[in-house]
Batch of 2 targets.
Target 1
Amino acid sequence: DVKVTQSSRYLVKRTGEKVFLECVQDMDHENMFWYRQDPGLGLRLIYFSYDVKMKEKGDIPEGYSVSREKKERFSLILESASTNQTSMYLCASSFPGTDYEQYFGPGTRLTVT
Amino acid sequence: AQKVTQAQTEISVVEKEDVTLDCVYETRDTTYYLFWYKQPPSGELVFLIRRNSFDEQNEISGRYSWNFQKSTSSFNFTITASQVVDSAVYFCALNPQGGSEKLVFGKGTKLTVNP
């Protein structure tokens, strides 16, 4: 069965902390994605990776960075967390090509206080 | 520009009612793919259907059906005889062929089915 897992369902961090959100997929997908979801704004793409060590900025990359050292793992990094980064973070993966659906993880609800 | 509009922010129905979720998209590409996802209260988006721009046949899967009309740039989703378990946020998404494999999502429609 297809599986995307995220390291935490809920996370509480303090302003200024460095935060790591981990995502692992077991489907051998080339593409991996990080989104944030906020009420009224839908899903917004933060970063996209189409291969190991390859990345592309999404719509809202400011304040975030990513790392993809292995095909199955894609990490989202908040270098210095701020309260406006309180959100639901969703990871997804897919095969390359626009006709493939993305598979999503369960999400991490991050609260920055 | 690529854009997906789901004009209905929230819909509330009573169980067994039929309900249609609207999706209107914009793209200049002639080849593209459209998707519907369901996000139940647990939070994980679940893929429901994919449709390519050359296939305008309607699709039915159990109580779910999809109506794709290129002439109106719409890809609407109907749930027949709704059930409480259908309560979720539903997202429509577009992936244009000329794009970089990034989905363009609508803002979602929250459906509440009351017993």
Target 2
Amino acid sequence: NAGVMQNPRHLVRRRGQEARLRCSPMKGHSHVYWYRQLPEEGLKFMVYLQKENIIDESGMPKERFSAEFPKEGPSILRIQQVVRGDSAAYFCASSARDSVYEQYFGPGTRLTVT
Amino acid sequence: AQSVTQPDIHITVSEGASLELRCNYSYGATPYLFWYVQSPGQGLQLLLKYFSGDTLVQGIKGFEAEFKRSQSSFNLRKPSVHWSDAAEYFCAVAAYGSSNTGKLIFGQGTTLQVKP
């Protein structure tokens, strides 16, 4: 049973480009969470999604960031016009519907903005 | 606002020695508490969690944690550390009102180094 998969594992973008981060939840999981880990900091919640719905986006920056979890395919975290401050590790976690605190984390995508 | 504090950024212990990692939280009601471990370049793995009941919680890999309401603490312990325990450890609390969202608030982490 494959765990949470994220790709790419490493992503380098120049300032102003777009970054797309993908997350495939564990089989049978319908809930996806995105967290960001800035250097020397803990993880910060960004957004919680179910299939085709954003449930809680209270941690998402107001501009340039968006997330989706379509009916088919992986969840996508999209960052437009990246800036150096977006450099971080982005982690995706998934859970089953009836156990939102049993979150299984992917290996993360490390974004570097040059 | 809710928060989680891990007072120790780095801890070094000798292999075979006991370990205690500190975690303090601020929360108005009975919290849901978690400890995660992150190996270099990897995602987070859940070690244990506390929701209610017995305040001493057993987890995987020989870890345990004790919830102390009077001290707002949830410290992680292990009687005998192995070299493979070297990693970063995160304490987390479920955000208030997040019963339907699973939103977690993390501490800054404690890096554990194990001396041979």
